[in-house]
Amino acid sequence: MKTAANSLDILLTTWEGGGNVPPVLEAARRLLARGHRVRVMADAVVETDVAAVGVEFRPWSRAPNRRDRLPSSDVLRDWEAESDLAGFLRLHDRIMCGPALAYAQDVQDELAHHPADLILTSEMLLGVMAAAEAAGVPFALLCTNVSVFPIPGMPPMGMGLLPASNDAERARHAEIAAGFRALLDEGLPAVNAARAALGLPAVRTLGDQFETARRTLLATSPAFDFPVEFLPPRFRYVGPLLAEPAWATCPSATPREMAEVPLVIVAFSSTYQNQLGALANAARAMADLPVRGIITLGPALAGSRIDAPANVTVVDTASHEALMARAAVVITHAGHGTVVRALAHGLPLLCLPMGRDQHDNAARVTARGAGLMLDRVASPEAIRAALVRLLHDVTFTDAARRLCADIVRGAGTTDFVAEVEALAQARVPQPTMS
User: Fold this and answer.
1) Residue 39 pairs with which residues in a beta bridge?
2) pLDDT per residue over 272-307, tens digit each?
3) Confidence (pTM)
4) C-alpha pair distances (Å), 420 with each of 8, 24, 41, 216, 233
5) Considering the domain 256-409, what is its CATH architecture?
């Protein structure tokens, strides 16, 4: 533990986006265990989870602020979008850029009452970045999955692309990355208005705002991510920050009569993505198979009814960590936290991505041979056939276990807490993003 004399006052800021919250809780827990003073600023619904970690909580007041996880309170409602791109545009307009001034003012007020030595913020909150810059407080971006920002040699995020294998694919990837940057820059008016209100000069591109961060900390494993020849100096892998929120409880033990058959976990998003149909299809797929299935609904679907066969149990919440310790296969939407946790247990995955970062995570799973991918509307028959393959073809389990060894070993990662401490205590060059 650090002593009070050299402890840091650290402010973590995030928003309620489902899987992005548990890594922030784990970050707070690790920093607190080191003896630092930690606060988390987020949507009001996160307060109970933050309190369970033992750190202080601050809710947003001007910025978007969810008080529950019901679909009706979702700011994005990206399940209504016509495409994944349209879903990202909702995130861009409603979280990243549109409310930039509101986020900035909330952070400005917090710093006025309680100064910080360092701010760790979601890479989605440009207003927080501007507020930290205006206050002269060093800050870093905490990316809770694979990088949203284009990294040279890495496939652009959002489409489930594999690494380029020829010049034509490399040119196509560069074109997509340039298009992504141009799309981001459509938020320049809102971000520059926030900067002007804070007394900051306008930025030419949103990339310039991102580059005011001392580091971008990638809370994933390089063993899971696609490799690149050169990682820009501003980026650091700090390994997965796996935590479970306070609402995740462990269901009753698997019935004794089913103890000898494989356990299949069905775990989709904790937020609403119109996933009830996919869960029902997964339940029907396991009918009459010699398996025991457990479907975890999560807060957004708690209380929903699924017509499940006798060998499938449906629960509102569950500890995925406890279940995965005795599971054989995981069927999932391919959210980063669920995927990496499964791989850390050496479990093969059946991925049914539904948007956000999920196609990219599924691409990394299938490229390593650690699982299969189906469309989100795959039929029970298709899910059943894929599940049987994963249960009986040992090459999937072998590949997942190889990834498990690499992820657990943590090769290529920087210690998260040590990196945070170094950022707060020394000036770090800020290279231009290529």
Assistant:
1) 11, 56
2) 899 999 999 999 999 999 999 999 998 889 889 999
3) 0.92
4) 10, 13, 18, 11, 15
5) 3-Layer(aba) Sandwich (3.40)
